[in-house]
Specification:
The longest helix is centred in the first third of the chain and has 34 residues. The chain is mainly α and 131 residues long. It contains 6 helices and no strands.
């Protein structure tokens, strides 16, 4: 556990991570961003398909685009826009956005504790949803 007095940046300081590992973390963050954006864009593409088929009006499509831009796209951007890829990569591994087998072992070793924390948080969220 991180402890109440320590922040993630104190436990996982980027300035103490070797350049090669920073590069690998950045690559994994790019992969995770791409995967999350793909899911979000597929959902938006379905709205375009509905519009082309005449099942949605121009106004409804416009509202979908607006909701996408101000909602999920902005959330994903905020998640990955920072200079520190440790948290987003750990979250992506914990949630299965990135498969553990596809992440370099040295990256997994660096983020293992955070992956466990995110995984426990996801489990807690699942249990709360079941109640």
């Amino acid at each position: 556990m991180l402890g109440a007095a320590k922040t993630v940046k104190q436990v996982y300081p980027m300035n103490q991570i070797p350049k090669k590992l920073k590069r690998l973390l950045a690559e994994q963050a790019d992969r995770a961003w791409e995967a999350e954006m793909r899911v979000a864009l597929v959902a938006l593409a379905e709205r375009f398909d509905q519009w082309r088929a005449g099942a949605l009006s121009c106004d409804e499509l416009d509202q979908s685009v607006h909701a996408y831009h101000n909602g999920i796209a902005r959330d994903i951007w905020k998640r990955y826009a920072g200079n520190d890829p440790v948290l987003p990569v750990a979250r992506a591994v914990a949630l299965g956005i990135l498969e553990r087998e596809s992440v370099p072992p040295e990256v997994l070793a660096q983020i293992a504790g955070l992956v466990d924390l995110f995984a426990r948080g996801a489990d807690d969220d699942d249990e709360e949803g079941d109640a």
